[in-house]
């Protein structure tokens, strides 16, 4: 609620209260959103290497709350906003701009520690060795995002209206108080939380260790069988509580890091060997595989960035009247993204997954990458509809000779509804799917850092959108031509920009299908210390004859 209470209508605050130009406001919103989603890389590293998820979240949430309080002050006190005289408003002073953006970026710093850790900390509460809890964990991310959507719905429906009609101070103050209340509730649960013990002192260091070892061994010959590579025996993983990751036939050059050094050929329980293990090498392979998938999520994240920027500005040009005395805030149309999510998540979790589970035998119904592919395909359809609606808007503008930047196009804002609804449905597949994919496929001790593949993809997508908007406006506005994205959207070619997004989205979908066909899923052995069995990829193997001690 706090995040979307700020993000959903920020572009309107910048243009109407700080009097920024359209392109500048879109760029600044994208840059801030990008920072909110990119700083989790640092927060996840601190959690995985030093503080753990609970304490990283605790410290960061207090920074987040401080930023919300400062932002509420910035929009509440008159001396912190530009003055207006007889309808003519001054531009914001450097000190006013500095205070406002400082508050925004303090929120971004706080988000760096909260976003990657709170969802993974929630997932840590489920015991992978307990079949019932493991089954519940499959649904966790669906309902995690469902609760987030409820907060987003309140923000886009209620807070946006309050901001534009009752005051920005109240509109930002409510989520600030709500944030403090939610943190209080979170801290009440401290005595009962499960804390996942870090089994590796520096997970990131192991990545570099594998790369260095593979480079040093680059001239050595790989053995014919993967079983000849360095790996600890099963007893070592049972005693340490770590998970063994099985060999995969991809990126074979990295396997050279696990070539035995000769002195440890006979001792497969010796953790002091100079060679890396197959499990360590597979962890690096997982990271490279996730990087490939991450790259093809950038364009979908750029499409998502339109919801809080150009879609909102586009909506301000349309007829927003609902009856004689009520006008819909343009940013409130974003609530239909949330509505469609809220309706789709239970349907997906309670009907689609059980139905597909019977067909495929997969506990998730479909694979994680199939889920992403469906979401990306729906997103392409959504941006195609956005393009068609904008072509229609431009046609109405020509028919009614609308030219002024503040003139209302005689076309209902509800023409934008299908693109919002489809993007909401798409997010049930790709947003939740991405969060679960990067958590599930991350190396065991890097799951907070792995989750930042999800957040950083959104962040880079916002930066990419900022870059595209700036460059497109600059290039198309030169030489006396009509800019695709100008201050006056009634005299621009926003339809061309949406057409451009449609083309790159369709191409990106093709690249995703290629990348997903190359991806190899993680294969772990889960050792249950209180049972005479080992589970590999959800299948159970009896190991009692091996004489393992329980």
Automatic annotation (TrEMBL):
Keyword Transmembrane helix present in the record's keywords: the answer is yes
- Transmembrane segment boundaries: 54-75, 140-162, 168-189, 286-307, 327-348, 368-389, 420-439, 451-476, 496-515
**InterPro entries referenced in this protein's UniProt entry, alphabetically:** MFS_trans_sf, NRT1/PTR, POT_fam
- UniProt keyword Amino-acid biosynthesis present: no
Localization, UniProt: Membrane
**Matching Gene3D superfamilies, A to Z?**
MFS general substrate transporter like domains
UniProt membrane topology term: Multi-pass membrane protein
Entry GO terms, CC: membrane
Where it mainly occurs, coarsely classed, is: membrane
- One short Pfam name that applies is PTR2
- Which keywords label this protein? Membrane, Transmembrane, Transmembrane helix
Q: In the record, what terms sit under GO molecular function?
A: dipeptide transmembrane transporter activity; tripeptide transmembrane transporter activity
Q: Which family does it belong to?
A: Belongs to the major facilitator superfamily. Proton-dependent oligopeptide transporter (POT/PTR) (TC 2.A.17) family.
Task: Please state what the protein is called.
Answer: Major facilitator superfamily (MFS) profile domain-containing protein
């Amino acid at each position: 609620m706090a995040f979307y209470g700020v993000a959903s209508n920020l572009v309107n605050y910048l243009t109407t209260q700080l009097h920024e130009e359209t392109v500048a406001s879109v760029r600044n919103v994208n840059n801030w959103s990008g920072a909110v989603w990119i700083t989790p890389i640092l927060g996840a590293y601190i959690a995985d290497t030093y503080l753990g998820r609970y304490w990283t979240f605790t410290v960061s949430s207090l920074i987040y709350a401080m930023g919300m309080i400062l932002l509420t002050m910035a929009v509440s006190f008159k001396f912190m906003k530009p003055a207006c005289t007889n309808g003519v408003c001054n531009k914001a002073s450097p000190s006013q701009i500095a205070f406002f953006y400082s508050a925004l970026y303090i929120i971004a710093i706080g988000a760096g520690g909260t976003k990657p850790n709170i969802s993974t900390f929630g997932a840590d509460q489920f015991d992978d060795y307990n079949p019932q809890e493991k089954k519940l964990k499959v649904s966790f991310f669906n309902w995690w995002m469902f609760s987030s959507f409820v907060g987003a719905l309140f923000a886009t429906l209620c807070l946006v209206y309050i901001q534009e009609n009752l005051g920005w101070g109240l509109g930002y103050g409510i989520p600030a108080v709500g944030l403090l209340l939610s943190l209080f509730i979170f801290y009440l649960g401290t005595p009962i939380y499960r804390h996942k013990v870090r089994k590796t002192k520096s997970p990131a260091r192991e990545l570099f260790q594998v790369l260095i070892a593979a480079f040093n061994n680059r001239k050595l010959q790989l053995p014919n069988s993967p079983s000849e590579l360095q790996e600890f025996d099963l007893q070592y993983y049972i005693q340490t509580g770590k998970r063994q990751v099985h060999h995969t036939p991809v990126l074979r050059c990295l396997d050279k890091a696990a070539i035995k050094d000769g002195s440890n050929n006979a001792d497969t329980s010796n953790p002091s060997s100079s060679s890396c293990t197959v499990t360590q090498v597979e962890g690096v392979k997982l990271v490279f595989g996730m990087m490939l998938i991450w790259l093809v999520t950038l364009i979908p994240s750029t499409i998502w960035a339109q919801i809080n920027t150009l879609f909102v500005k586009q909506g301000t040009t349309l007829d927003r009247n609902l009856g004689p005395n009520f006008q819909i805030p343009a940013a409130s149309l974003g609530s239909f993204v949330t509505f469609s999510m809220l309706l789709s998540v239970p349907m997906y979790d309670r009907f689609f997954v059980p139905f597909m589970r019977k067909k495929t035998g997969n506990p998730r119904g479909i694979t994680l990458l199939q889920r992403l592919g469906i979401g990306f395909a729906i997103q392409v359809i959504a941006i195609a509809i956005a393009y068609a609606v904008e072509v229609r808007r431009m046609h109405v503008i020509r028919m009614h000779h609308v030219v002024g930047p503040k003139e209302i196009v005689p076309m209902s804002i509800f023409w934008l509804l299908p693109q919002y609804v489809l993007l909401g449905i798409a997010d049930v597949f790709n947003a939740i799917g991405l969060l679960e994919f990067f958590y599930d496929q991350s190396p065991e001790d890097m799951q907070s850092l792995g989750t930042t593949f999800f957040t950083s993809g959104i962040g880079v997508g916002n930066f990419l959108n900022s870059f595209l908007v700036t460059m497109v406006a600059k290039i198309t506005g030169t030489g006396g031509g009509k800019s695709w994205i100008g201050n006056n959207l009634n005299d621009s070619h926003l339809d061309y920009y949406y057409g451009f997004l449609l083309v790159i989205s369709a191409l990106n979908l093709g690249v995703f299908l290629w990348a997903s066909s190359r991806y190899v899923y993680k294969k772990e052995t889960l050792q249950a210390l209180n049972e005479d069995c080992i589970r590999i990829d959800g299948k159970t193997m009896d190991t009692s004859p091996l004489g393992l001690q329980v």
